[in-house]
Write a structure and sequence with these properties.
- It is a single chain.
- By secondary structure, the chain is mainly alpha-helical.
- It has 3 domains: 2-207 and 299-356, no CATH class; 213-294, Sulfite Reductase Hemoprotein, domain 1 (2-Layer Sandwich), CATH 3.30.413; 367-485, Leucine-rich Repeat Variant (Alpha Horseshoe), CATH 1.25.10.
- It is built from 20 helices and 5 strands.
- It has helices at 2-42, 61-92, 97-115, 122-143, 153-169, 177-186, 190-202, 204-209, 228-240, 277-282, 284-294, 299-328, 335-358, 369-373, 378-390, 410-419, 426-435, 441-453, 460-469, 473-485, and strands spanning 219-224, 243-245, 254-259, 262-267, 270-276.
- Strands 2-1-3-4-5 form a 5-stranded mixed sheet.
- Strand 4 and strand 5 form a beta hairpin.
- Helix 5 packs parallel to helix 13 (335-358).
- It starts with a helix and ends in a 13-residue tail after the last helix.
């Protein structure tokens, strides 16, 4: 039983440690963002994201805990898995321990070097080294005294089942796989809807913690240039890229300094880019992109998080589910048989979970869109709406769209809202405004996306009103992007419509 429990227990304890570390990591990021927003307010900017309804939550612990959960279930899962797997290899191949140790050291060195490029990142380095150490230590205690070397029957069973699970899911893995999972598995039932709502309510807290500067929506800047005319020109250009000039006493994301005919860009007290004045004004966006790249301390960490999301998280779910089923099947005397039955049950469960992805409707031809929209199956109607949205198909003459605004299926209203971005008709514009008040935040976000893409600045006051009244960060995020696409510019003293 100890051998069966070892993987799950070591992984769970490793992830508990990850949750603790990442909670403090997200809390520190939330505090930094809160201080930045206060500095922007004091500088006279009023349309901020998140707004004053959400800003107080940045000082609370609950969003930090829930935000830390995102990292725990992705990169934390991967690091915990590494810790257990290293110890497992050490125990199962005793004659190859020097090779295993050398390989682990080389891999750890590779991770350390990349985590600290372009500059030293002590908090993330500490977290990424400590989590696998904790998970590995727990595994070492569980495997102590057990003879597991040379017994490959159970690992072979696991490998075979994992390969089969991969074969089930791989045909449906593409760029839209997460959207498809959301539409087909989460939004179709109350439990899934709660998971979806939880994700979108709290996902921007951890996302803000490891974004690069050009990925952040609002940034702060200190401009320390004695030439008032040059300072104002640089300030105006930076504001277009959402760099908000704040008081010199406030620590900013970047500091801009003039040195003779050159402009120095500093981040965390380090000069990350130098440009002549003329070169900067010739292509400011390119220079700011360079500044972002050279001050991006989380580039490799984001890669680790993505790998953890697509690989480590599903694998850990399998291992924990397998452990639970193995314990429940204790009447079966044979360890191999018990493990095999649990693995088969995991295979069936993942196959059933993938079933809705296979019954999803195939995309219609352009000539079939009207017929699909009139179908009794919501999957057909969603498939048609996806086609309209992805292929920029005109919808001004499709009267079938207007009855879908009251659909009970969230995915259908979501894709309806997104498809409206392809039209300039006043009727579809009214439909987008109706969906702007949908009770589901995902639908609201797509209505804002469409209003921003319709190239109709008359929608700006409605978008601003939505941003001012919404207590959902994601909705505000989409609203701000819509305003920028419509040509709106941030100005000091500019109030939001009530």
């Amino acid at each position: 039983m100890r051998r069966a429990l070892a993987p799950a227990v070591s992984l769970i304890i490793g992830m508990i440690a990850a949750q603790l570390f990442f909670t403090f990591f997200v809390k520190a990021s939330n505090t930094y963002l809160y201080n930045n927003l206060i500095a922007m307010q004091q500088a006279g900017y009023h349309l901020l994201v998140p707004n004053t309804l959400v800003m107080p939550t940045l000082q609370e612990w609950a969003p930090a805990v829930y935000g830390g959960l995102f990292f725990t279930l992705t990169v934390g899962a991967g690091l915990s898995l590494m810790g257990w797997f290293g110890v497992y290899l050490w125990r199962i191949f005793p004659r190859l321990r020097w090779i295993i140790a050398g390989s682990l050291l080389l891999f750890s060195g590779y991770v350390l070097i990349n985590l600290n490029s372009p500059g030293v990142n002590l908090p993330i380095t500490f977290i990424c080294m400590l989590i696998p150490a904790i998970s590995g230590f727990v595994a070492l205690q569980f495997y102590a005294g057990l003879c597991i070397s040379g017994n490959f029957r159970i690992p072979v069973v696991h490998m075979a089942v994992i390969v089969m699970i991969g074969m089930i899911w791989m045909p449906k893995v593409n760029a839209d796989v997460f959207t498809t999972i959301r539409d087909s598995l989460l939004l179709t039932n109350p439990t899934g809807q709660k998971i979806n709502d939880f994700y979108y309510k709290y996902t921007l807290y951890p996302a803000e913690a490891f974004k690069s500067l050009d990925q952040k929506q609002l940034k702060t800047v200190n401009i320390k240039i004695p030439d008032n005319g040059l300072s104002q020109r640089i300030e105006s250009r930076l504001l277009k890229e959402d760099y908000f000039p704040v008081a010199a006493t406030h620590p900013a994301d970047i500091v801009v300094i003039q040195e003779n005919n050159r402009i120095l860009f500093q981040n965390n007290g380090r000069t990350v880019h130098i440009s002549t004045i003329s070169e900067f004004f010739a292509s400011p966006s390119d220079h700011l992109t360079t500044v972002s790249q050279k001050s991006d301390y989380y580039h490799f960490f984001r890669k680790m998080t993505f790998i953890g999301l697509i690989a480590a998280s599903p694998l850990i779910c399998y291992m924990i589910l397998h452990t639970v089923l193995t314990i429940l099947l204790f009447p079966i005397p044979s360890v191999v048989m018990r493990s095999g039955c649990a693995a088969t049950a995991c295979l069936l469960a993942t196959g059933i979970a993938a079933l809705p992805l296979y019954i999803d409707a195939s995309p219609p031809a352009p000539s079939e869109i009207s017929r699909y929209l009139e179908s009794d199956r919501w999957q057909d109607r969603v498939s048609a709406l996806k086609c309209i949205s992805n292929d920029d198909i005109p919808i001004d003459g499709l009267n079938e769209l207007f009855r879908l605004v009251d659909s009970p299926w969230t995915a259908e209203r979501y894709w309806l809202a997104k498809s409206l971005s392809n039209s300039r008709s006043p009727k579809t514009g009214q439909l987008a405004l109706i969906l702007l008040n949908d009770p589901q935040p995902n639908v609201e976000c797509m209505a804002l996306f469409s209003l921003g893409n319709r190239n109709q600045p008359a929608a700006i006051p409605e978008i601003q009103r939505k941003m001012a009244s919404s207590d959902h960060w994601y909705v505000q995020w989409y609203g701000y992007k819509a305003l920028k696409r419509l040509g709106w510019k941030q100005q000091i003293g500019q109030e939001q419509p009530k």
